[in-house]
Amino acid sequence: MAAADTSLVDYYRASAPHFDGVYAKPERQDDLRELEAMVAAEFAGRRVLEVACGTGYWTRFIATSALDVTGVDAAPEMLARARRRISARNVRFVDGDAYALAPDPGSFDGAFAGFFLSHVPKAKLRPFVAQLNSRLAPGARVLFIDNRFVDGSSSPIDHADAAGDTFQERRLADGTPHHVLKNFLDEAELRSSVEGLAAGVEYRAFRYYWALRYAVPQS
């Protein structure tokens, strides 16, 4: 998660032991299988930067075909679980801030962020994409996936702020409440966030999720 939002990092640090339960919802399994295959195919033979890698759930699918993967996260407890899950020689995990990625331009020709854009304030979406692109080689492939709001499956929106960002109240296993920024972005918002920063933009809607892919412009 992004170190710039300490409340979000605190939530993910505390939720790490049970976080992967979010992938166990029975109604979402068909979508997840398609997304897992998409992630593996997208990055075949590439050097991939994974932003907000969490517990490594998606890292393992990238690693099946990628040349190498660097997973970045700001929550130590998440990284610890990721390291226990994956010991592949083409994977490494590092502590880092998604809004201040270490400058290493040209080393990566692929980037992935799963379920992170929904935690980015809308005003920071374009700056985040611009910064991410600056860490990638021209022509690099980028793939974002995240949630669509589906009544009865998604946690309800608790409130919205003046900037138009929305929040959910989430309770941990011990009952502790956390108010978590969670924007359910539509296709128009996503395309606007990468307009002028991306080539060959493709959007795909699933029942419970969406996927956005593009290439970093050559110049």
Report what the structure shows:
The protein has 219 residues and is of the alpha/beta class. The chain has one domain (6-150, 184-215): 3-Layer(aba) Sandwich (Rossmann fold), CATH 3.40.50.150. The protein has six helices and ten strands; from the N terminus they run ααβαβαββαββββαββ. Strands 3-2-1-4-5-10-9 form a seven-stranded mixed beta sheet, sandwiched between helices. The model has no long low-confidence stretch (mean pLDDT 93).
Radius of gyration: 16 Å
Q: Return residue spans where pLDDT drops below 50 for at least 5 consecutive residues.
A: none
How many β-strands, per DSSP?
Answer: 10
The total of helices stands at: 6
Strand content bin:
25-35%
**Biggest β-sheet strands, sense, barrel:** 7 strands, mixed
| CATH fold-level name | Rossmann fold
Number of domain units: 1
Share of residues in helices:
25-40%
What's the CATH class label? Alpha Beta
SS-based class? alpha/beta
Tell me what the CATH architecture is: 3-Layer(aba) Sandwich
Helices and strands, in order, run as: HHEHEHEEHEEEEHEE
Shape: globular
Output mean pLDDT.
93
Spatial gap, N to C terminus = 30 Å
